[in-house]
Amino acid sequence: MSELDVLLFGEIDPPQRLLMGPGPVNAHPRVLRAMSADLLGQFDPEMTGYMEQVMALYRPLFGTENRWTFLVNGTARAGIEASLISLVEPGDTVLVIDFGRFGLLLKEILQRIGARVVSVEAAWGEVVPLDAIAAAIERYAPKVVATVHGDTSTTMAQPLDGLGAIVRAAGAFSYVDATATIGGIAIAADRWSIDVVTGGLQKCLSGPSGSAPITVSDRAAERILARRHVEGGIRRADIVDGTGPRIASNYFDLAMVMDYWSEKRLNHHTEATTMLYGARECARVALAEGLDARFARHARAGAAVVAGARAMGLAVFGDDRHRMTNVTGMNIPGGIDGEAVRRWMREDFEIEIGTAFGPLAGRIWRIGAMGYNAMKHKVAITMSALETVLRAEGFACPPGAGVDAALAAWDTAP
Amino acid sequence: MSELDVLLFGEIDPPQRLLMGPGPVNAHPRVLRAMSADLLGQFDPEMTGYMEQVMALYRPLFGTENRWTFLVNGTARAGIEASLISLVEPGDTVLVIDFGRFGLLLKEILQRIGARVVSVEAAWGEVVPLDAIAAAIERYAPKVVATVHGDTSTTMAQPLDGLGAIVRAAGAFSYVDATATIGGIAIAADRWSIDVVTGGLQKCLSGPSGSAPITVSDRAAERILARRHVEGGIRRADIVDGTGPRIASNYFDLAMVMDYWSEKRLNHHTEATTMLYGARECARVALAEGLDARFARHARAGAAVVAGARAMGLAVFGDDRHRMTNVTGMNIPGGIDGEAVRRWMREDFEIEIGTAFGPLAGRIWRIGAMGYNAMKHKVAITMSALETVLRAEGFACPPGAGVDAALAAWDTAP
Questions:
Q1: Does the structure's ipTM exceed the value 0.95?
Q2: Among partner residues A100, A247, A287, which is closest to B6 by beta-carbon distance?
Q3: Alpha-carbon gap, residue A300 to A294, rounded angstroms
Q4: How many angstroms separate the Cα of A123 from the Cα of each of A166, A332, A359?
Q5: What is the pTM (predicted TM-score) of this model?
Q6: Inter-chain contact A357–B234, Cβ cutoff 8 Å?
Q7: Span A319-378, pLDDT tens digits
């Protein structure tokens, strides 16, 4: 390809598509505007000031007073791996609460970092009862217990109240992947006594993927800092290595990352400044709305999608008692081509809805209504479009019932 | 802190500072504008189209026809670690060409991932001769040879022409960290027969940190794909695991990342869309200028900084024959407080110049002139400001000599 051809790719100009899948969703315009600010040197006082602000802004989102609340520079998955590789020592037994694809991801990461992985499982569409978790902790005596909060693959939200207390009573540490819930469903890291929680921007916070907020309890930080090993070339007299086994990643070494985010300002990676500006604005937007109001808005959106789907005659997937408010699964009716429906939705309505993974591939659609898209009009538009496409595909669906039910549910949700 | 206090942090509003340190530098405005576009679903045809364009756009920047040219989602350091952990198997002998802080970083990462690390070293301010590298390969029979291209800690650029041929003749693989040179100093991955090269956006490409372009030769891709292990929950009949040892990271598993960037579109992380838009625009800006013109502009900028520093009476650090064009080190004169000078530069002129690491901390300043800042007027402004501050700090410096020499060198550079 010649350089001239390359230039012909032209300006970035994505279609104005409504992203009603399991994420990413549309970015809040304030977030994109904040990201258009110019860069700063990474140790300039204004930059370190912004870093301090980010730490403060994410504490309420995680429901914590943890000093160590900061960003991992990568997608949500980077936050997960950084947490596990820094918290888990090779050979440690780790109990994974596995109720979907992202539970499997936790196992996968843990196997690669040399943990002994055990699990307590639920079928896709269900969650794991607390007493089953307690029994598994009793049985396996894990050093770390890891779970997903809301698993978008199954649309289930694992109840976490009480988990941390059991884990700490057993002398262990807890990790929660809250990528799909942060900013949309309440997280109470302190009240739940969870040690490490990570999130992402691209779901309920309506930012771009690429930065992973994290919070670390003091007791977990102590364990991690005991594994500190400052790299050659930047060693300093005021930063002493720990005595624990060295963390098997440099990039994901939370001990060094915490030293970077502390007043020590130990040089590590070059902070992803633009993503930090975006993460900061995501949090400001969420806190300005008020977290309780925001969670209620997501609950209305979820209730509306569920009611709309059922009124159209679609069976909603999974356990009603533990449904995430921001992503809803619904069975693809027999005889309907799920991918054809998604394509029609995209081509005629510029609306994206989600497909599914693994055992649910081809069996359910997933509709997300989160962040900037957990809006009455966006849910209504999506339900109307879905109905139109379903009727065109030959599914007998009472005209107008879905959107009417969705609007009614939005208005009457508690 | 109350939520109200949090809101009082206010809008993002960094000072308009000229970043003439070793990076990050100021972003090109076109890059920030491109990043303000809304998000897309990660498998929407427009998104995968943009991914294909990014692959094409980065091939000329790396000087390669490699199919596997894509982005790692993280800072430049993420690209380094992903390359090494995917290329190196535990127990492999790896030869590091070590001539500065970022050579030490390569060693550090390699130690953590279980390599047997050997090295061939140069003093800070020098590079390693090719025959010394050849002798070390002969002596250690490494499986992988890793080096930095331009090490900003010492401002030296390691010559790479001929390296790949020696490495391949020995049956080994080569890795080059080109974070600080990509888009500013020529990289010829194919002509140099280098197997894996990674970069970053925040230096000569004038983008934000947070995305790491990478290119992988077919022979390296074959080695990496032989270690493929698709995670549970997304296994597919058309993607078969390899027989090699599993890569010890999920996030940095280039086999899965390549499957994500191929027509297989295997789900892995959620691509950092906004950073991808930025990376795409960085490359378009560079290719529109023309790479040869761009490299010449960086050479003029480097010559101007060197001439300006010398005319002010500052000794320039390191070997003239192997100096990077985009970052220049100069000795802090005896009796001058280097940090006070940097503070004055920032406070009175809104110009950032760099400090140094390790053995050079407190001994040199580093001035970068790269990407959007490798401009005649920005170099001139910086030289004038530095002279003013140096005189105020008591350094006897002929008035006007630095800026005059810098301008003259810019105009006469070959």
A1: yes
A2: A287
A3: 10
A4: 23, 19, 11
A5: 0.97
A6: yes
A7: 999 999 999 999 999 999 999 999 999 999 999 999 998 899 999 999 999 999 999 999
